[in-house]
């Protein structure tokens, strides 16, 4: 499928892109190749292929959440730039 320079200019305008003449020609060729490939995919017989959201089976790979002892507060606060009453002190973000 052939894409015209005018089509590329239209898409570039919608995307608010400024393209050189060389870029317009390059993108017209590339977009045409993409549409040609999509047309080939349309020729495939997918009548007996069930619709799926993923090609591969999806399974939860997360580990079980198991409680563990926390670090002592004194050790955690060693990395704090500022601390008050066992809590991190940060600059105010609201006025």
Automatic annotation (TrEMBL):
Known EC number: 6.3.5.-
One GO term (biological process): regulation of translational fidelity
Record's keyword terms, sorted: ATP-binding, Ligase, Nucleotide-binding, Protein biosynthesis, Transferase
Top-level class of the enzyme under EC nomenclature: ligase
Transmembrane segments: none
Listed GO MF terms: asparaginyl-tRNA synthase (glutamine-hydrolyzing) activity; ATP binding; glutaminyl-tRNA synthase (glutamine-hydrolyzing) activity; transferase activity
Pfam families listed in its UniProt record: GatC (PF02686)
Catalyses which reaction(s): L-aspartyl-tRNA(Asn) + L-glutamine + ATP + H2O = L-asparaginyl-tRNA(Asn) + L-glutamate + ADP + phosphate + 2 H(+); L-glutamyl-tRNA(Gln) + L-glutamine + ATP + H2O = L-glutaminyl-tRNA(Gln) + L-glutamate + ADP + phosphate + H(+)
Assembly: Heterotrimer of A, B and C subunits.
Family in the record: Belongs to the GatC family.
PANTHER family from the UniProt entry: GLUTAMYL-TRNA(GLN) AMIDOTRANSFERASE SUBUNIT C, MITOCHONDRIAL (PTHR15004:SF0)
Function: Allows the formation of correctly charged Asn-tRNA(Asn) or Gln-tRNA(Gln) through the transamidation of misacylated Asp-tRNA(Asn) or Glu-tRNA(Gln) in organisms which lack either or both of asparaginyl-tRNA or glutaminyl-tRNA synthetases. The reaction takes place in the presence of glutamine and ATP through an activated phospho-Asp-tRNA(Asn) or phospho-Glu-tRNA(Gln).
HAMAP family xrefs: GatC
Protein name: Aspartyl/glutamyl-tRNA(Asn/Gln) amidotransferase subunit C
Organism whose genome encodes this protein: Thermobacillus composti (strain DSM 18247 / JCM 13945 / KWC4)
């Amino acid at each position: 499928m052939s894409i015209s320079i005018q089509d590329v200019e239209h898409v570039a305008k919608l995307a608010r892109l400024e393209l050189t003449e060389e870029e317009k020609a390059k993108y017209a060729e590339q977009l045409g190749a993409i549409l040609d490939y999509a047309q080939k995919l349309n020729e495939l017989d997918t009548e007996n292929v069930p619709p799926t959201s993923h090609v591969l089976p999806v399974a939860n790979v997360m580990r079980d959440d198991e409680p563990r002892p926390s670090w002592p507060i004194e050790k955690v606060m060693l990395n704090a730039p500022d601390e008050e009453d066992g809590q991190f002190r940060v600059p105010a973000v609201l006025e």
